Amino acid sequence: MGRFLEDLVHQAMELTMEEDDQRALKAKFHKLKQEVIDDVRVIFPHGQITPPTLGIRGIKVKLPPKDPNGLNGPDIPGPSAPGIPEVISIFNAYVQNELPTYLIYVPDKRLVGRNEVKRMFRKEVTLITEEAIHSRLVELRESCPTAEREDAIKDLVKDIVKYAVLSHRWLDSGEPTFYDILKSFEPYGYEKLVKFCEKASEFGCRLAWSDTCCINKDSSTELEEAIRSMFKWYRDAHVCIAYLSDTTSIDDLHQDVWFTRGWTLQELLAPWRMKFYGKNWQPLTSDVDDKENLELMAALSRATRIPLDDLRHFQPGTTNVHEKMMWASTRTTTRIEDVAYSLIGIFDVSMMVAYGEGKRAFHRLMEAIIQKCDEWQIFAWAGPSSPDSAAFPDSPRCYRPLNPVDSNDVLLPSTVWRGDQNIVMTKRGLQIQVLLVDLSQQEVTVYEKIGTTDVRTDAYSSYTAGVVDYWCYDVSGEGILQPEQEHLCVLLHPDPRSPYAGWRKVTTANLVTIRTKSKLRRTLSTVWLLSSTPLAPKLAPLSRDLIPTAHISELTEDSSDEDEVFLDAPESYDP
């Protein structure tokens, strides 16, 4: 604000007020002045000068950038300081590429950006010596013989620029936002942030990150970077501080709402070190790292159905997709799209963030997963399918449990495999090889898997089963169903209106499995899963004469020809 108005106010105060009253009012005036300046920065982020007109001094606005990242301006180095050039280079690269975009500077609860972090910690980084690098390299090679000098330097840098992350359930009444902290405003929920900073300081962290106020949600670019990088930010954090506000002890931990939220799944799996606090910020254990406390980890495993090894040493990726989807199946998110976005890091896939796309986000997630996944268990779901493809479920809630023995292929020799190992997305839909079985021939017994119970049923005798977990012992193009073994299948029925004599996938409420009394050997068929149709109990039984024999023929063992079945997109269906 220009000096004209300020001088006028000060003169008026000196003439009319006592000295103590002047000091109090000047303090209030200074605070108001600072708030006006902050507002002007928001309106004129790059500064603007209004020249004097008509002899009036006016308001001169010339503001240096003050946002946490210097308004994304250049990193202006201070005076040159001694230091190892390689160390400075690794430090700059680490801060710019691996740290969160914004962090809270714990001592004064203000937001700082990457450029300010560089300026704050550069002097300490220059103190790293060759002796320290050598010593750290020796330590790293004790656990990782392939560690290099660069790894040792980066490890030393992370010790200096370490930060804590918060895992919590958002309050319905609101949380501090990015602009609240930027303007030093203390809204409802600010006390939780203060407590978090206190705990972060106890772990020696001068920086902290919270998803409520460290993401500029007005910037689509910064929001997308945060969502796609969040798993890595939690993994790289010095400690994750988990606040379970409904919990009083390990005994009632499983009842906390924290376990029902979608984003907290990756916040539980990603960090290497965690510290859990219950109601009123009381620690649930006396350990520094609760991931080393077996009692607490066992309670977390019971509450989440996640194995202990995954809780402590989780590795992201597209293996065990069915199991990971089961972990997510009981969780909810406020935004529909976050059902998918909260799983990006867990599956280690890349996809664009586009709020407003609704359930299509989960369809795109499944497309990204299927490109790197060859597990037949990915089809162990029932219920509504994605509006975009019958191959994919509507959400993780569609996934159902499998028998551990039948779902575990880890011990199979390399010459034996189950299911299609080359599932691929094509323009015609999801291409997969299945073993077709005509259920009207009564050569198999059909079961519905209700929970963990197998219930025998004859309701599907008019359909064809596409078995996805058949056995393969060679590359002849044939699959085998072993006697009295459970085999997972998708239900299909022919579409007489299709010019391709194609098939449609039938939607079922539960998983459908089949068992044979004797070994069944059959040539595999290629199907393309497109759209699905609801289960239609009123549909008249289909004669085998209506089913093209080219698609369900029982071929001799020396035949190696593959059948092709096209699942045509259905028209509107009214049972």
Describe the protein in words:
This protein is about 30% helix and about 20% strand. The protein has about 575 residues and is of the alpha+beta class. The chain has 4 domains: about 60 residues, no CATH class; about 70 residues, no CATH class; about 210 residues, no CATH class; about 160 residues, no CATH class. Strands 10, 11, 12, 13, 14, 17, 18, 19, 21, 22 and 23 form an 11-stranded mixed β-sheet that branches.
Can you lay out the helices and strands and say which pair or pack?
Elements: H1 3-16, H2 19-43, H3 85-98, E1 102-105, E2 110-113, H4 114-125, H5 130-143, H6 149-160, E3 163-167, H7 178-182, H8 190-202, E4 207-209, H9 220-236, E5 239-243, H10 264-269, E6 274-277, H11 294-304, H12 308-313, H13 321-328, H14 338-341, H15 344-347, H16 360-370, E7 385-386, E8 389-393, H17 404-407, E9 417-418, E10 424-426, E11 429-438, E12 444-450, E13 453-456, E14 464-467, E15 471-472, E16 478-481, E17 487-494, E18 503-507, E19 511-516, E20 520-523, E21 525-529, E22 532-534, H18 549-552, E23 563-566
Parallel strand pairs: 3-4, 3-5, 5-6, 18-22, 21-23
Antiparallel strand pairs: 1-2, 1-4, 7-8, 9-15, 10-11, 11-14, 11-21, 12-13, 12-19, 14-17, 16-20, 17-18, 17-19
